[in-house]
Amino acid sequence: MKKIFMALGVALFCLFAPSAFCQDFLPCFNQKLTDSQIQDLKSGKVIIRNLKSAKETSLSTSNVYANKFVNELKSISPTHFAEVIQVRPYKDHENLIKELEELVSDIKSYKQIPYYAERQGAWAAMFTKSEVLSCSRGKLTNVYNAVFRMPPFAQFKAQVSTTQIGDTLYFATVNKETIGYKIFDAVKAGKMECGLVLFRQGDYWILYGAGAVKTNASFFLKKRVNTAFVNRIKDFSMYFIKKLN
């Protein structure tokens, strides 16, 4: 009888193991993802979600830095929130953390990031200025103080940080001073953050890019800059994801 149960157990494992293998990244996400979005992730596609509220984030993981990133974004009380997600196999992509760290740390190259301006109906450079003012390197975390110019907004200072520990890379950019738009203050200091978390889940890499911004409550500003910020959040994350091999 024991042999019969053992044989049955092996048969069931062989039957369902491939499905389980394909889905072992699913515990990283909650039920906010649709079936079609899950299928897209399984096939290696990038999914982009524009969220009405920070409560709609799809990430649900025990990874400390992924949770730290999401909690920081939520703490902004954003008026705009977007997430960009891709799942890649770990096999043949073992150096993905090194590749991503090199990309996000090359701050001067941010001027190559394309941005689609809907009002003009054309692609343009997201940043016309991206310079490092100072850099502090630690055992796990590197911090870059930088200055950016992101037309049509005024020049602003920001902090770029990368933390790499084990099979996790956490990258974030936060504005450290007010971002102006013409004669208005569009975004207060610390109220815009964009970044990526790359971490391993079983046989997969999870690439989770997201951005949040809280714009000035002025109706004039909302009407003119909201779309600009949402598109920048998406294009910022997509640039680095596309650059990875």
Structure description:
The chain has 245 residues and is of the alpha+beta class. The chain has one domain. It has 5 helices and 11 strands. It has helices at 2-22, 35-42, 64-75, 96-105, 219-243; strands spanning 47-51, 80-89, 114-117, 122-125, 129-137, 141-149, 156-165, 168-175, 179-181, 184-201, 204-215. The strands form 2 sheets. Strands 1, 2, 5, 6, 7, 8, 9, 10 and 11 form a 9-stranded antiparallel β-sheet that branches. Strands 3-4 form a two-stranded antiparallel sheet. Strand 7 and strand 8 (168-175) form a beta hairpin. The radius of gyration is 20 Å and the shape is globular. 31% of the residues are buried.
Name some characteristics of this structure.
245 residues; alpha+beta; nine-stranded antiparallel beta sheet; two-stranded antiparallel sheet; globular; disordered N terminus
Q: Briefly, what is this?
A:
The chain is of the alpha+beta class and 245 residues long.
